[in-house]
Amino acid sequence: MMLKLILEQVSQLMFQPVLALLVALVIWTLVALGMFLRSFVGRRRGRRPAVGRFAQLIDEAAGDAMNLPAGAGAGPAAEAGAAPDLDLRIEKLLAQAEHDSLRSLNSVRFAVRAGPSLGLMGTLIPMAAGLSGLARGDLPALAEHMVVAFSATIVGIAIGVVAHVIAMVREGWLRQDLDDIRLHAERVLRRYEAAAAKQPASPAAVAREGA
Asked: Please, what sign has the CA dihedral across residues 153, 154, 160, 161?
């Protein structure tokens, strides 16, 4: 009996925090929906900030590599790691782009799961109190608790649906952005390799090849 009372008290203590979190999640969902619509309009107009930012970083990395003196990649300094490796720098930038994409989706994916879960908790807690009122014959209390219970369910499911739609569309955008960034990186690497092939070898490199 004591354990049942403890569980009942714990569930009742959780009711107000659950409702507060549900309201906070509603506000967050509205803000996320506004940002999503702004991104949608921007992409329709051709604005893709992530692609432009990482394309610029890749171009800068390639520019730094192309500005090295001829044959700098074949001497002892390169073996010691002094000369930058363009392949590794671009791989690092691609990994950073993928990491940023996944991190931007984490909050939306959290809302997909948290919304219905909080809605279910907000349903079951007052429903238990409503059943207790029904046992006492207090029908007005039962009706009041049922209104809160079903309202929490509706709000939680709505949050989950909206967040799920946002997550699906944004995931498609991010995949497209990553594909375009990888394509740009491949083009830059090919240009760099073609330019490096046209550069004359340094005297030191020629002497080593002759030896």
From this structure: positive
Q: For residue range 157-206, what is the model confidence (pLDDT) as tens digits?
A: 999 999 999 999 999 999 999 999 999 888 888 887 777 777 655 554 44
Give the burial class of 160: count Cβ atoms within 10 A of its Cβ; 0-12 exposed, 13-18 middle, 19 or more buried: buried
Closest CA to 15 of 124, 137, 174: 124
Positions of the chain with pLDDT under 50: 69-83, 204-208, 211
- The 3-state DSSP composition of the chain as helix, strand, coil percent (nearest 5) reads 90, 0, 10
Cα-Cα end-to-end distance for the chain: 92
Residue carrying the six token digits 């671009």: 90
Residue with tokens 């207090």: 138
pLDDT on residue 111: 92
**To which residue do tokens 């649906």 refer?**
161
